[in-house]
Amino acid sequence: MTLTAPRPPAVVTPPPARARKLSKIRATATTRTLISAVDLQRHRYAYFCILGLTLVVFALVFLFPVYWMVTGAVKSPAEFAEAVPTWFPQSWHPETYATAWTNMRIAKYFTNTVLYALGGWLFCLVVDVLAAYTLSKLKPVFGRMILGLMLASLLLPAAALLVPAYLTVVDVPLVGWNLLNTPWALWLPAAANAFNVYVLKRFFDQIPDDLLDAASIDGAGRLRLLRSIVLPLSRPVLGVVSIFIIIGIWKDFLWPLVVLQNPESQTLSVALARLANTSQVPPTEFIAGLTIASIPMIVIFLIFQRSIIGGLSAGSVKG
């Protein structure tokens, strides 16, 4: 009589589709979410319906003003002034954009704005990088208190700082210069940006000190460390801060309105508002000017939207 070993139980392999589904559920089971993975899989049709409806509503809320601005410029002045607005232009007048570009001298004010934005970007980036590098790596006395005072300035509304900033620009302390109607009236206040300093400092904090110490042993000075090590490693956050600076200067209206009183030196937003108060500019041409003024910032955001998110989160995780 021969004894045979018992056979091991057969392993039932689920179908490939079901196996993938189970592995997906197990992978997301450890993630804490508002709705569990099992409930999400069970009610996935309701989930996608709600998600699609939410996306459509938010898209309409944000894109409808842009659509209204673009189509409002191609309407006739009579149609634009009707009490009951029309959703689609009854007659198309795309030549309004060319007329607005010529009559409102948009090219002149567009050039002024580009000059202010580029100069402000360079000056603000230099000041903010040096301030963040000093607070992060040089560890000055009362550095934390200085950073706290900088961040406390973010709690103040911009209107509360308008009068002190104007008095400073009219009569610069110690030198007594009057900076009205000059680019410095925009560049100097823009350089004092606590948010940019904080973002840069948080990124600089993630750079290992051992790397800087090794370069210091080889004879690199403080500025050489900043130029050769810190700045090349900080390209993502420098790109994000640069976008914030340019957009902030481009869309600013109140401060340029106060300090740029000469019409020849005004920015595009201030010039459009001034020309809108005159009876010589039809409303459709004014809307066309607003559309032209908003195109550069929309293009910049669409191109660099991934860089903005990636640059802000680059220094938030320690590797």
UniProtKB/TrEMBL annotation:
Gene Ontology annotations for the cellular component aspect, listed alphabetically: plasma membrane
Location of the protein in the cell: Cell membrane
Transmembrane spans: 45-70, 114-133, 145-166, 186-204, 225-250, 286-304
Alphabetized UniProt keyword annotations: Cell membrane, Membrane, Transmembrane, Transmembrane helix, Transport
Record membrane topology: Multi-pass membrane protein
SUPFAM superfamilies: MetI-like
Keyword Transcription set for record: no
InterPro entries to which the protein is assigned, alphabetical: MetI-like, MetI-like_sf
Recorded superkingdom: Bacteria
Xref: Gene3D superfamilies: MetI-like
GO BP annotation list: transmembrane transport
One Pfam family hit: BPD_transp_1
Domain ABC transmembrane type-1 intervals: 110-304
CDD domains, per the entry: TM_PBP2 (cd06261)
Stated family: Belongs to the binding-protein-dependent transport system permease family.
Protein name: Sugar ABC transporter permease
Source organism of the structure: Paractinoplanes rishiriensis
Source organism phylogeny: Bacteria, Bacillati, Actinomycetota, Actinomycetes, Micromonosporales
